[in-house]
Amino acid sequence: MSDVSLEAARRRTFAIVSHPDAGKTTLTEKLLLFGGAIQMAGSVKGRKAARHATSDWMALEKERGISVTSSVMQFPYEGRIVNLLDTPGHADFGEDTYRVLTAVDSALMVIDVAKGVEERTIKLMEVCRLRDTPIMTFINKLDREGKPPIDLLDEVESVLGIQCAPVTWPIGMGQRLKGVVHLVTGEVHLYEPGRNFTRQDSTIFPSLDDPGVAERLGDAMLSELRDELELVQGASHPFDPAAYLAGKQTPVFFGSAVNNFGVQLLLDFFVEHAPPPKPRATTTREVGPYESHLSGFVFKIQANMDPQHRDRVAFMRICSGKFTAGMKAMQNRTGKEVKLANALTFMASDREIVETAYPGDVIGIHNHGTISIGDSFSEGEALSFTGIPNFAPELFRRARLRDPLKLKQLQKGLAQLSEEGATQFFRPLMSNDLILGAVGTLQFDVVAYRLKDEYGVDATFEQVQVATARWIRCDDAKKLEEFREKNALNLSLDAAGQLVYLAPTRVNLQLAMERAPAVQFLATREHA
Ligand code: GDP
């Protein structure tokens, strides 16, 4: 096997999805702990704080207890290389979260045992469903009282429409939490509070029949547990690798992230069963991870990570081949060859310069605004990966400048910030307005803050009569021109120069569509 095949086969690239407060950050810390990436839990929060210090606008995130940025953490575990892509977790999350999910091969869903399936989890699951992303589930906070485990499985099955296969099963809960049983291996892992920074190998028994288990649990609890397990195994599904890989079944684990309990069982199972990189679709053909030529796509842009350098980093997911520092690849949007120098990798310990990277890995490419979300890079052959959508924004505001002389900076700032993908920027054909669209209201505050902080522009955002946006496409040039003339008042160009219809009301949109049957009104635009 070539080194590309070997390296690709051992990559496990995933994201954790959860409703805020379910324990995503805590679980991330524990996974990094097992990955040897950090010595002590707490370091992720420490890293967060350190990063906050490097960039002022992040103070806004901190103030609001949100994380607008997301990062990539790589660590080795049991011969595998795990890439964990963080998803932004703020209440007002937007498209950038969705797009991170296009760059992973599987996901891990964290659920709070007391709260069950929450609204954000439902949304995120819908996105995973679009690509049949395989999902594992961790039910967290077992050290607290919560819903009965059987009810939780029912809830996941009925609300999220996915079959559950419990892999571990809790012994008690809250004050009475005694451990978990591994339903596949039969092992019993007992819970010892206060050992949350270490691996808990000393409390593992090979099976329920081990005399040590009866000794620790007592006969009454043990027989209650046996009855329960019988019930569970009758009522639930056994783990089926094919169903999991098809996104039809989710293996379920129970534990307590903060107590580091049940986490290692999850990680061991994850690296064994979670999928390595799969082939991905482009406009011309499917690209397999084991192909020797490099290819990848950009799913996220982050500007000004380092305010001293005003740099921007494009996050590229590698889909095939091998990346080596300084190599050249063709950028599909421009058709030009670009040298990929100064790429960053994201070892959990720190950002560092990479020499090589493989399918499943994410590299960060420094640039000065020449790379956009959705761009593909490839060696030898032009390729354009599909499926990285731009969603029509749901909220619109007009930018208003305090100092009219700063118009140029405002335009530049809005255009650059919209390249990061959280907001979209529109210029009406018939006016000098600058209109910003977003999926959540918080984005407007973030943009106003960053305009001031990074571009020295004092702008506010005011209401504007726009209900929704549709990208316009029409193969018939004459009909398109006609449409343009008749609807000029409602037409704008987006940051990429594409024609967009900004409808003042839904009714107006309906009418416009009826009057122009030859024109397509698209609710998403694939980055092209
Ligand atoms: P996130 O918003 O999903 O990243 O959640 P965090 O990891 O920040 O956790 C939210 C809160 O739940 C924090 O106060 C954690 O300390 C707490 N927490 C996380 N895991 C557990 C757990 O297993 N048990 C209990 N009791 N609390 C937990």
SSE blueprint:
Layout: H1 3-9, E1 11-18, H2 24-34, H3 43-54, H4 58-64, E2 72-77, E3 80-85, H5 95-102, E4 106-112, H6 119-130, E5 135-140, H7 149-160, E6 163-166, E7 168-171, E8 179-182, E9 188-190, E10 204-205, H8 211-217, H9 219-235, H10 241-245, E11 249-254, H11 263-273, E12 280-281, E13 286-287, E14 295-303, E15 312-320, E16 323-324, E17 328-331, E18 336-339, E19 344-347, E20 350-353, E21 356-357, E22 362-367, E23 376-378, E24 389-391, E25 395-401, H12 407-419, E26 423-428, E27 435-438, H13 442-455, E28 459-463, E29 468-473, H14 477-486, E30 491-494, E31 499-503, H15 506-515, E32 520-522, E33 524-526
Parallel strand pairs: 1-3, 1-4, 4-5, 5-11, 6-11
Antiparallel strand pairs: 2-3, 7-8, 8-9, 9-10, 12-13, 14-15, 14-23, 15-22, 16-21, 17-18, 17-23, 19-20, 24-33, 25-27, 25-28, 26-27, 26-30, 29-31, 29-32, 30-31
Helix pairs in contact: 3-4, 8-9, 12-13
Bound molecules: guanosine-5'-diphosphate.
Guanosine-5'-diphosphate (GDP) binds next to helix 2.
Characteristics of this structure?
single chain, 528 residues, alpha+beta, eight-stranded antiparallel β-sheet, seven-stranded mixed β-sheet, 15 helices, 33 strands, 30% helix, 29% strand, binds guanosine-5'-diphosphate, GTP-binding, Peptide chain release factor 3, RF3_C, protein biosynthesis, Small_GTP-bd
